[in-house]
């Protein structure tokens, strides 16, 4: 960004922008393959920057995704300086030693719905769902096998409680609820594993 030897700011905007565009295209393709619409993909440019030959780099999130002139370069340098000074103190900044970019990262993402977590801690009246099976399971610090109910994903409703010992199988994971614990699903699709 700034060459201390020549005292010049980076002006190869096209080379920098090509790197960013390539990373955006890769991120867009990854998300498209996961079923997201390419038009919904958003990008955030992040740089790992440092002063001169310092070993320490500082991650900086920028509010612009392209360099189109000296003003953009100065804005990137200012953002880096602000983040660096906030973390290490204003006396630690050393722009006169040069300013380097070690890593260019583009975070590609799709905006999701806002999740309301207000009800996560509310304790509604809960009932134990019906098990779909049973296994004999050995638990640490318990002598012998215990007949353990097995539940499937349908049991994970917001009004359910699954006392341990239990096994809950879902499409993506399996929960093992040990004796002395219970599982409480939430409206948001998360679960609490709580000790009795």
List keywords for this structure.
196 residues, alpha+beta, 4-stranded mixed sheet, 3-stranded antiparallel sheet, 2 helices, 20% helix, elongated
Gist of the model:
The chain has helices spanning 13-33, 70-88; strands at 2-3, 8-9, 41-51, 58-61, 99-110, 133-138, 145-151, 162-163, 166-169, 174-177, 181-185, 191-195. The protein is α+β, with helices and mostly antiparallel strands. The protein has two domains: 2-110, no CATH class; 125-195, no CATH class.
Strand portion, in percent? 25-35%
- Which percent bin holds the helix content? 10-25%
Q: Give the biggest beta sheet.
A: 4 strands, mixed
Give the N-to-C terminal Cα separation. 57 Å
Order of helices and strands: EEHEEHEEEEEEEE
Structural class: alpha+beta
Name the average pLDDT: 92
Please tell me what the overall shape is. Answer: elongated
Q: What number of structural domains do the residues give?
A: 2
Classify the oligomer: single chain
So how many helices? 2
Low-confidence stretches: none
